[in-house]
Write a structure and sequence with these properties.
By secondary structure, this protein is mainly α. The protein has 13 helices and five strands. It folds into three domains: 149 residues, no CATH class; 153 residues, no CATH class; 31 residues, no CATH class. The strands form two sheets. The protein has a three-stranded antiparallel beta sheet. Strand 4 and strand 5 form a beta hairpin.
């Protein structure tokens, strides 16, 4: 029989952030008419959205986003001091008023006590002169959100980037290297998906709506560009940290170990950036491949279903349509002739200059007789046609 309690401590650790959030919101709910629990969870999502685009939220920006997007809650409660509620959510509930919180529970089979420190958000940047601070999720905060919903496939790499930065900035270099390997695997899988999609499009490009495909490619390209920017920023930070340690005149064993890990991380990130650039190029090329596949399918259909002699040439000869109509019916089948200089163009009729009738003094081909003018125009058309075919 399997021992399903062997990982009971892991289950407690995974549920600790959720238990903490429920307990803290319940403690403050009696003092507010706003539903604090969904608002606290929503605030975590707002902070997460800012992290995805590398724009961390402050207390004021969070309040502005809540006013703009949470109309269901704010309208129901009419007017309320939303700024005060934001302060309570951001500092008292999500950060436990700055006091470290430790959740403890007991394993039923052994009676051992498991203690789990809980911290959902932390300060991303702080300007003491302006009393301005921005916030980001901790690893526990991220895991709490991911536990409430499956990771979206197209954001999987972005999520791993967040984990990578969290571990690196926390000094957990081994975990950072592990996340780099995870990102390698994700890029490899995404590249395989693009290759598979490309083969499917080449087989039948008309099975996909162009507008839907274009939107997907645009969204993926936007995400990849954001991921590329994050990779470059992280790589620059690692390189600066490595140079800072190397420039130290006196180093101990701990510094040497850190320098070794920084070099490994920097080297792996260089390869990771190259792989991600290849992925970005593949994503951008997919749109051109899609259009090329549709063009080839159309050309193939025309070659199979339209017989040039029977369907185009013979009707043109038998029905004797005007030359302009026949030309417009088949001109797209021929390549445009490259432009070149020919001295014979000097014999072509020049475009007439538009002048007022009172400015006309003499004209060699002028005739008041309408029939003579018509014969002259016909002769000019014939000459123009002759020179055009001669050239």
């Amino acid at each position: 029989m399997n021992d399903y309690f062997s990982d009971f401590d892991t289950r407690i650790r995974n549920l600790a952030p959720l238990q903490y959030l429920a307990t803290r919101t319940q403690d403050f709910q009696r003092s507010y008419t706003y539903p604090l629990y969904p608002m606290a969870l929503g605030m975590l999502i707002l902070i997460y959205e800012g992290m995805l685009i590398n724009e961390h939220h402050s207390a004021q920006s969070l309040a502005n986003e809540m006013r703009k997007r949470w109309t269901g809650i704010l309208v129901a409660n009419k007017q309320g001091d939303i700024d005060t509620v934001v302060q309570v959510l951001l500092f008292s509930i999500l950060q436990n008023d700055g006091i470290p919180y430790v959740y403890s529970d007991i394993i039923p089979t052994t009676g051992a006590t498991v203690e789990v420190p809980v911290k959902l958000i932390e300060t991303a940047d702080f300007d003491i002169s302006q009393s301005y601070a921005t916030f980001r999720l901790t690893s526990q905060g991220l895991e709490l959100l991911y536990a409430s919903k499956e990771k979206p496939g197209e954001l999987q790499l972005t999520i791993e980037q967040l984990y990578l930065r969290q571990q690196y900035e926390g000094g957990h270099f081994n975990q950072a290297l592990q996340h780099i390997q995870n990102i390698y695997q994700i890029i490899r899988l995404l590249s395989q998906d693009i290759d598979q999609t490309s083969r499917a499009l080449m087989a039948d490009a008309f099975s996909v709506q162009f507008e839907d495909f274009e939107q997907v490619i645009h969204r993926k390209t936007e995400i990849n560009q954001r991921e590329k920017k994050e990779f470059m920023l992280l790589h620059t930070k690692v390189r600066q940290d490595r140079k800072s340690v190397e420039d130290q005149e006196i180093r101990n064993q701990k510094d040497d170990d850190a320098l070794l890990m920084l070099r490994r991380i920097e080297s792996n990130l260089q390869g990771l950036v190259k792989e991600h650039v290849r992925l970005l190029n593949k994503t951008q090329d997919l749109n051109s491949r899609f259009l090329e596949s549709r063009r080839q399918r159309i050309a193939l259909a025309l070659r199979r279903q339209i017989h040039y002699r029977n369907d185009i040439l013979t009707p043109c000869i038998e029905e004797n349509p005007p030359i302009e109509m026949a030309y417009h019916g088949i001109y797209f089948l021929f390549r445009q002739r490259p432009s070149h200089f020919s001295p014979l163009w000097c014999f072509h009729n020049q475009l007439p200059k538009i002048i007022r009738s009172d400015e006309i003094e003499t004209a060699d081909d002028y005739s008041p007789d309408e029939e003579a003018a018509e014969r002259l125009a016909e002769q000019r058309r014939y000459e123009a046609s002759f020179y055009r075919h001669a050239l």
